Amino acid sequence: MEFINTASFIKNNFLLENKTAERLYFEYAVSMPIIDYHNHLSPGVIAANEPFSSINEIWLDSDHYKWRAMRSLGVPEKFITGKEVSNKEKFDQWAHTVPFTVGNPLFHWTHLELERYFGIKTLLQPSTSTAIFDETNRQLLDKTPKGLLNDMKVQMLCTTDDPIDDLSHHKKISMSKEFGPEVLPGFRPDNIFNVQGANYMDYVRALGDVAEIEIVDFDSLLEAIRSRVNYFHQNGCRISDHGLEFTHASDFTHAKANTVFEKLLSGSLPTAEEESLFNSCLLYELFVIYHDHGWTQQLHLGALRGNNQKLKKQLGADVGCDSIGDFAQAKNLSKLLGMLNDKNKLTNTILYNLNPAMNEVFATMPGNFNNDKVEIQWGTAWWFLDQKDGMELQMRTLSNMGLLSKFIGMLTDSRSFLSFPRHEYFRRLLCNMIGNDIEKGLLPHDLSFFGKMVENICYHNLKEFIKYKI
Length: 470
Known about the structure:
By secondary structure, the chain is an alpha/beta fold. The chain folds into two domains: about 5-45 and about 145-465, TIM Barrel; about 50-145, uronate isomerase, domain 2, chain A (Orthogonal Bundle). The protein has 19 helices and nine strands. The strands form three sheets. The protein has a four-stranded parallel beta sheet with strand order 4-5-8-9. A three-stranded parallel beta sheet has the order 1-2-3.
């Protein structure tokens, strides 16, 4: 079927407010490949590389951004995460929701994704729901995960993987002869820090099993973790990530950390003070291990997760019930980075901030520790902030207090294979910001210089920073 273009608002100059911005985007940014160095895509789906069963599978079934918007509109939960209704009924409820998302990044993302992946330029709303549902499902019969990634010029991506993962899907991908991006694991050991969790010791035992190490004390726990880092390294991993409310940086000794772990082994829960000491020691030692392997480390800070306890018990984590937290960040972050720096164990680091009130804190922290051997980056606007205002504010603050020219750009941080137009969204905003400054006379009219800067931010800076051979 053919969709009429008259309803489309995403023109060639979308988000580009002047001719200089357009030239920067179309002559420099648009041709850059994508390195998506942090996302939550399923390596199993990529390894299988089978066409998707429906638009719901790829667009609605795991997207808690959309779930959150639908709940805010009062859509019954059965049409969001329920199993008793059809894909068409769920899609109709999303189509009903979309017009209400005007002003939310979901409105832009939804129509960018429909146009870039499916060539659909019709606005999604109840009157177009059936036609768009049918057309996307028809096209998906011929679209594979690797094909979708290739369409967006994704050159390499890093998934987010637990230390106990056997990485079998990554191995299958690496051996495949099908054309597609390089897919590498990312080490995400958050479960090691969840000492108050009901199943924490079960996780520790599973870690010991995969590492083939009996974990009987803190030293053997570190030995098991080091074994898994070695395993990930052998399978192409060069990046780690930690999702924390704030940086753990209490005073610790190994002996005291071992005492806390012995308490856990005996079946007792540590106090809040003991938990902080244990996690601080563990995080420091992990960062030392990353340094010794030449990895890049990431800290995603500031999320208050699982606020709706009822839904958390019903559906689990990552279901759209998280929010921005108001945790103190600067002192602990400075303390941890300083300890590592003092011992020459600080590796390349990316810091992500979720609370916009902390933007200046995160913009000024890297300059305390950057040198000719180590680079600390304030990463792109994250989660609730990866929208127009949030990205513009992050880049402007970075420009004011750091070096925008060295910025490593955008990532999706997404579970959706349709999320890669977010790189386009970011690149348009970047070019528009620089283009506006040039047009206002705040920057010289040197398109060659600023074009190269745009290319670097979109691709080259990151390629150099994360030390992958691409």
